[in-house]
Amino acid sequence: MNETHDPKIKSWVASANAPDCDFPLQNLPFGVFRRKNDEGGGIGVAIGDQVFDVGAWVRDQGKSSAEFKLLTEKRLNRFLAAGPQIWSAARMALFNLLREDSPQREQVARYLDATANVEMEMPIDIGDYTDFYASVFHATNVGSMFRPDNPLLPNYKWVPIGYHGRASSVVASGAAVKRPSGQRKPPTADMPTFGPCAQLDYELEVGAVIGPGNALGETVPLRDAEKHIFGLCLLNDWSARDIQAWEYQPLGPFLAKNFVTTISPWLVTLEALEPYRRSAYKRPEGDPQPLPYLSDENDQQRGAFDVSLDAYLSTRKMRDEKIAPISLSHGSLRDMYWTFGQMLAHHASNGCNLQPGDLIGSGTVSGQSKHSRGCLLELSWRGTEPISLPSGETRKFLEDGDEVIFRGYAEREGQARIGFGECRGIVVG
Amino acid sequence: MNETHDPKIKSWVASANAPDCDFPLQNLPFGVFRRKNDEGGGIGVAIGDQVFDVGAWVRDQGKSSAEFKLLTEKRLNRFLAAGPQIWSAARMALFNLLREDSPQREQVARYLDATANVEMEMPIDIGDYTDFYASVFHATNVGSMFRPDNPLLPNYKWVPIGYHGRASSVVASGAAVKRPSGQRKPPTADMPTFGPCAQLDYELEVGAVIGPGNALGETVPLRDAEKHIFGLCLLNDWSARDIQAWEYQPLGPFLAKNFVTTISPWLVTLEALEPYRRSAYKRPEGDPQPLPYLSDENDQQRGAFDVSLDAYLSTRKMRDEKIAPISLSHGSLRDMYWTFGQMLAHHASNGCNLQPGDLIGSGTVSGQSKHSRGCLLELSWRGTEPISLPSGETRKFLEDGDEVIFRGYAEREGQARIGFGECRGIVVG
């Protein structure tokens, strides 16, 4: 914790000081933007309702220090490779430029654009994307639908289960989500048919973006794992449940997941999230202790970020009738059985090389309560319990025109509240 | 078929005309090399025991035509993006430069280096790597070990089963293969332990490298699928069977596979393979016909390449005693249940975007006979039938110091014989 976490320090950007603002001075998330009028863009930092064009500022000021020069790139990958000291130095410098009493206020003000005037792009070129399955509540719920006799497999409490996802189809918030086609075979049918997915779902997840990483054949001990995580974003792991049920054995989900994955475009740094740490999920009595390579008292103490997550739904009819989006899922990243540190240490435990800009998904964030279930599969219990919407409609799964909006934030007594912005996608047929 | 397939035309590079040469004039595979004396490198083409430094030749000659200028890049990705017409034009031009009666012989000769003087690098930057499971013999064998009551799952004959692999750990032939550690739990044990893999295996596969690909949300109809495949290589999908058995449910193999994948460095073009096409694997009576999006008479007629594949083993003792590597697996790509065209069309059927340089693995190539089983898991029947080696040793799985060498070639009466070179890796502890 350092001065950048001090909630008493305000910004000269007035909108950043509003109580519900996602991007106060204490947040400073990194992203990549493009001006809607096509007048350039690059790496930026969100402050209030403004984007600070850091790349242009660094170029124009002729800054050549390590923490700045990497911010003139088109994507954040090289900055991510530089590691926590550089990230922290850049954050401190940006904090000082944007604080109320900054002597550079007038200079910097020329590099601000209203968020409304920019479009956000992918902040990183993703080398590899891995999705985990770290909520024991989600795993148990889903398992009990697909394998009623055997809901939670014997490896779950030992192995942070994960699988490789598709990097090419990860898109930034706002991109349309085209309903995929694929093979589906209801249990009662004799043979599968090919056609549009009838059980389209969202999955409320958090993504972690990798910093320096490790060379092939080397490992990352758990105590160092967080040094390799730059920050977090929201992640919607759109899923075609009917395709998934038919294809997933024995090698896991494939076309049911890789048609699109949406992330929120602002990467909230681990340093910004520092004040919102809580002890990790406490394993119930009787659960095994993790093996030594996944055990670290400090990781468990520090490990979980108390990030509140919401998945909102807005149907076409709701928009027509000016009904506000409704929260379907409300959970916390703190409920995960495995921390990101454990996931990362596990991922590299066989020598698999993680690289700057790799993306790691948490898996669907579900908690114990019904409202905390992080996908429609769980909420509608595989379609058997349709959800009633304020528009008079019901939903088992997503219909064309439905927009799914994720929001996330962290708050704590005596601290600023910081948010993730939004992760949006609208389903098109 | 065109003049480049004419077996009667010889090269002025004498070694290319030897009867067992992998790289005659009719092959012309593309790769990326680096001179061992550090004097540069780039995109090259193999001819006999020589590498033609195409990149340097294009630069020095000031060639600016589309088929040439992309060959001055560091990797083949942009050339792959250009599509079959450009590939074919480049092949024809190279053929004419290297044929016996080429007027440019003396000019070109200055750009040749002995293969022995170069090291091969990764020919492509791989965006995404997908591994299929296209041998019904392999799937049935493995299934009967892991699920004796249910060896071949009901989806197998409908769905070209595939899953995402790890792109970052794909390496070029020759890189050491470090034995991974991970969680293993024998069925008789109460709990898993973490330690070095005790059941390290190879998988004899063929890789297909993607050319232009498709935009997100678009599909690739089967009739067009082969236009998106630049060429093939050998692929060793190293596997940790003990880790795999414990981790793979429900989301598929992860750390059991992603510690390293080795490919042969020369990409043999589909055009070079044209003479060795045979009708695809004939589904036994009673098997379902593929769904329409996977059905194309032309694909089935043209679809399979009759590429012979061998996996050789050389143990440390065998090398010490000057015993030649022994062929453990000998199969043919023709035995696959699904063609690469079907795999690609399936992969894109949900709108998943394939990109230039993506890698698609066939899955282990196993046939009906015992010798054609493409991995030790099958050959030693999960370790229950150890394999006797000419050195007096036995093997259930790979031991430290073991080198696995893949070779592949295509031959046909009245045609040249073309080969893939080697895909090598030595296991280190």
Automatic annotation (TrEMBL), chains A, B:
GO terms for biological process: homogentisate catabolic process; L-phenylalanine catabolic process; L-tyrosine catabolic process. Residues 130-424 form the Fumarylacetoacetase-like C-terminal domain. The keyword GTP-binding does not apply. Residues 26-123 form the Fumarylacetoacetase N-terminal domain. SUPFAM superfamilies: FAH (SSF56529), Fumarylacetoacetate hydrolase, FAH, N-terminal domain (SSF63433). Its EC number is 3.7.1.2. One of its GO terms (molecular function) is metal ion binding. The active site is at H138 (proton acceptor). Substrate binds at Y133, R147, Q244, Y248, T364. Mg(2+) binds at D237, K257, T261. This is fumarylacetoacetase.
